[in-house]
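Q: Sequence in, structure out?
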Amino acid sequence: METKRQKKARIIPKNLPWGVLLWQLPDGKIFCDNEGNYLSVECFKGDLAAVEKMRLAAAYYGAAEGQTIFMPGRKKISHSEWEDSMEEFIDGKPLHGDIDA
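A: Exactly. Output:
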């Protein structure tokens, strides 16, 4: 007998003071390397030192044009952490580090 898996929505509050800063190109895409790794830094919202580091890093990698965008409640993870989380998600298990909204 086939059972239907309930879909779970994950809501991340937008008012969290911590998250990840990304570099957005003028065309709206997020800057990343050929392997899909995003130029990013974990920081607190409004961290001007992190913004300056992103600006300098983007210029170093040839993407000086653009702006930072802040993603609240997110954190950087390794590829193996992502694979583990995907396995847990597919198996219907609670994800490590989930935030109760």
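The beta strands are 18-24, 40-44, 67-72.
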